[in-house]
């Protein structure tokens, strides 16, 4: 058996820190995306007997890349679940001393043994109340736990402890940033309805808001999942939604929409458009109906920088695109334009509407990074051209911007959710290669994206060239967690 310890000092009262751990969302916020996913949050919070399920990726760059590749394959083939790149980890809470400590163990999973004790103590060495948090992990590695070769076991345990140190550094960064966010955006607990809550962004947004004490109502598409309290049924394709079930909400966040990333067939294009416009119109109409009661509500709706078109720049130097830039004319630009226009009934009724024009989200859980990881892990990565601008954003920041938009009453209209420092494709490739410690010199042949995406999909996705400004969101008071690409990639890939 080996023991790993990690200590974190936080400038917040012990009661406040412990309360954060006791709320829904703590586990998804602390579970790094390169480790896998949280399939089930603790079903009884921190209470003894509470259980959670994690899907754990194999360690290292190759493990993350394998998980990304199989997830991409599952989505491409329309499979309903992940296909074997992860191992289930079933956790159980076995002790709780409220305000002071709790313990969880691994009931089944990839290790021979795991017990994680969480201790919280007052830190009296500051001018303001603080907390000393101590994590103590006792573990045994599989197979090696019975190995007669002590040196092999010691080397394996040392390597695993290095991985654990990386994991707990990630947890510390997330905990510090989330606690600071909630302190900066202190408010009475709100009631927030979220459509698209099970997606990559939606999962993290619900977790962030839940950690702040807000009540989340998820809009679900299966009646069996609806309970009228924290899950409400809707069917945007058929126009089914009871506005009365949203009567108590302070805000609605709409992230729903068919995945963009495959060939632009006629059927796919129809799904991309209708899944965004129909749902947005339905929610906008419901909020407009409810507006007669005089309650001030907000409607935060996803959009994309695709609204500017795939090739919006016409001169040199290439000037950043702001929210006043005219929409483009290609397919995705038309989709985003119709998407934002579908909010009109809510805005006309006095609902505060914010359209979040999201850039290229960086996470191994999906999007451009997940698509590129397998090639880079094999040492076959490289730039797609050299000069095209990529307006990226870290997962934590796009989630933070949605929460900021929801909690900032002075913010309205379209807002670009992109990092302050966009990069060109050659720099993106070089930075990703540096983070992964892999070469990034092999240019991607121009025909390759066309084979995967078709001509139109390649033109509007792979070959898009958009330098987008973050001026408005920064001026509204949002502070980026990872404003630079390298730090953002290191954070989500476990190479910090």
UniProtKB/TrEMBL annotation:
Tell me where in this chain the NAD-dependent epimerase/dehydratase domain is found: 192-365
Q: Where would you find the membrane-spanning parts of this chain?
A: none
- Known Gene3D superfamilies for this protein? 3.30.530.20, NAD(P)-binding Rossmann-like Domain
Q: Which Pfam families match?
A: DUF1731, Epimerase
User: What highest taxon heads this organism's lineage?
Assistant: Bacteria
For this chain, the family text in UniProt reads: Belongs to the NAD(P)-dependent epimerase/dehydratase family. SDR39U1 subfamily.
PANTHER family xref list: EPIMERASE FAMILY PROTEIN SDR39U1, SUGAR NUCLEOTIDE EPIMERASE RELATED
Its name, as the record gives it, is Putative epimerase
Organism of derivation: Paeniglutamicibacter gangotriensis Lz1y
Q: What is the lineage of its organism?
A: Bacteria, Bacillati, Actinomycetota, Actinomycetes, Micrococcales
């Amino acid at each position: 058996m080996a023991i790993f310890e990690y200590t974190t000092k936080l400038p917040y009262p012990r009661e406040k820190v412990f309360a954060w751990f006791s709320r829904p969302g703590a586990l998804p916020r602390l579970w790094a995306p390169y480790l896998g996913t949280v399939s089930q949050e603790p079903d009884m919070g921190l209470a003894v007997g509470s259980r959670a399920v994690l899907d754990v990726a194999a360690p290292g760059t190759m493990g993350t890349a394998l998980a990304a590749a199989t997830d991409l394959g599952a989505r491409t083939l329309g499979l309903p679940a992940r296909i074997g790149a992860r191992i289930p980890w079933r956790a159980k809470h076995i002790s709780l001393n409220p305000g002071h400590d709790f313990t969880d163990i691994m009931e089944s999973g990839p290790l021979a043994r795991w017990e994680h004790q969480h201790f919280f103590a007052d830190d009296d060495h500051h001018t303001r109340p603080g907390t000393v948090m101590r994590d103590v992990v006792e573990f045994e590695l599989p197979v090696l736990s019975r190995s007669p070769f002590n040196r092999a076991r010691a080397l394996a345990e040392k390597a695993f402890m290095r991985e654990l140190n990386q994991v707990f550094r990630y947890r510390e960064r997330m905990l510090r940033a989330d606690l600071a966010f909630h302190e900066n955006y202190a408010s009475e607990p709100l009631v927030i309805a979220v459509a698209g809550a099970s997606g990559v962004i939606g999962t993290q947004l619900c977790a962030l808001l839940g950690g702040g004490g807000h009540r989340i109502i998820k809009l679900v598409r299966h009646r069996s999942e609806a309970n009228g309290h924290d899950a409400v049924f809707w069917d945007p394709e058929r126009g089914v939604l009871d506005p009365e079930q949203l009567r108590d909400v302070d805000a609605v966040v709409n992230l729903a929409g068919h995945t963009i990333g495959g060939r632009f067939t006629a059927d796919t294009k129809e799904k991309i458009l209708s899944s965004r416009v129909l749902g947005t119109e339905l929610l906008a109409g419901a909020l407009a109906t409810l507006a007669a009661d005089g309650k001030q509500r907000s409607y935060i709706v996803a959009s994309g920088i695709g609204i500017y078109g795939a090739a919006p720049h016409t001169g040199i130097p290439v000037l950043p695109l702001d929210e006043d830039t005219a929409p483009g004319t290609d397919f995705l630009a038309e989709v985003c334009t119709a998407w934002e226009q579908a909010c009109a009934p809510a805005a006309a009724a006095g609902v505060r509407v914010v359209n979040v024009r999201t850039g290229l989200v960086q996470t191994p859980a999906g999007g451009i990074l997940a698509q590129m990881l397998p090639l880079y892990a094999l040492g076959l990565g490289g730039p797609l051209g050299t000069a095209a601008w990529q307006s990226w954003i870290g997962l934590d920041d796009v989630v933070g911007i949605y929460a900021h938009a929801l909690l900032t009453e002075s913010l309205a209209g379209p807002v670009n959710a992109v990092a302050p420092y966009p990069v060109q494709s050659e720099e993106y490739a070089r930075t990703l290669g540096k983070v992964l410690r892999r070469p990034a010199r092999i240019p991607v042949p121009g025909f390759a994206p066309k084979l995967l995406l078709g001509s139109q999909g390649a033109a509007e996705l792979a070959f898009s060239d958009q330098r987008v400004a973050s001026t408005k969101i920064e001026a509204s008071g949002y502070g980026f967690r990872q404003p630079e690409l390298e730090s953002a990639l290191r954070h989500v890939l476990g190479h910090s």
